[in-house]
Specification:
The chain is α+β, with helices and mostly antiparallel strands. It has helices at residues 106-111, 113-123, 148-151, 174-183, 207-212, and strands at 7-8, 18-21, 40-42, 52-54, 69-72, 77-83, 87-93, 98-104, 132-135, 145-147, 162-166, 169-172, 189-192, 221-226. The strands form three sheets. It has a six-stranded mixed sheet with strand order 4-5-8-7-9-13.
């Protein structure tokens, strides 16, 4: 049976097979045919690292490398990222026929996973001036409260991404921080879908929302991008 789960798409990636899939009501790995018929799904073991890998074939479930981003120039592959508040970022250079996908939580974004993804794409023939990046459903600043131990890991130049909320607490703007790092790479375009995983409880899983409600925190949603033959 075809995978019919709902998804969001980015205007900037129009014409590129992709989708930010919703999670509620859908469990398990998605069928890559939901965005690209006959494609193979490539997944990795995400560990909140800054590492990106060039791929040309899927990995066996028990042999997935511990990285948080991928790039490929191999037609017929769909790259998949799982998230539940962190930022899923999908990349494409249409002219070169190279795509990428990154899991950008605050650690990964802060320590370079977005830059690493672009470098892997360039190694495959992409040009950063032709790369489009789209940020999918991510926890919004209003729902991302952090303490000083979090804030002090950032530099003074990053303080614009924090707003004081109450004594000893700040709100962190993860999607704006991710967008800022992407724009600093001088890509062709950066789009933020501006969908809050915490607030959109009828469509997306949120690790923080589940934690606040003492619910199971192991549920995720997938973001996919494929390369047509």
């Amino acid at each position: 049976m075809a995978d019919t789960r709902d998804m969001e798409r980015a205007e900037a990636l129009e014409g590129v097979p992709h989708g930010f899939l919703t999670g509620v009501g859908h469990e398990g790995e998605p069928d890559p045919a939901c965005i690209l018929a006959g494609a193979q799904l490539v997944l990795v073991k995400q560990v909140h690292s800054p590492l990106a890998l060039a791929v040309d074939s899927p990995f066996a479930p028990d042999a997935r490398p511990e990285v948080d981003a991928m790039a490929t120039a191999t037609p017929g592959l769909v790259l998949g990222i799982v998230t539940a508040d962190c930022a899923p970022v999908l990349f494409a250079d249409r002219e070169a026929g190279v795509i990428g996908a990154a899991h950008a939580g605050w650690r990964g974004a802060h320590f370079g996973v977005l830059e690493a993804t672009v470098r892997r794409m360039e190694e495959l023939g992409a040009s950063r001036g032709n790369i489009i990046a789209a940020i999918g459903p991510t926890i919004a600043q209003a729902n991302y409260e952090v303490g000083w131990d979090f804030v002090e890991q950032f530099e003074e130049r990053h303080q614009s991404f924090f707003t004081r909320s109450r004594p000893g607490k700040w709100q962190f703007d993860l999607p704006a921080y991710v967008a800022w790092r992407l724009r600093s790479l001088q890509l062709r375009a950066v789009e933020d879908l501006a969908i809050d995983t915490y607030a959109a409880e009828d469509r997306f899983h949120s690790y923080r929302r589940a934690t606040h409600r003492a619910e199971a925190t192991d549920k995720r949603q997938y973001s996919l991008i494929g390369l047509s033959a």
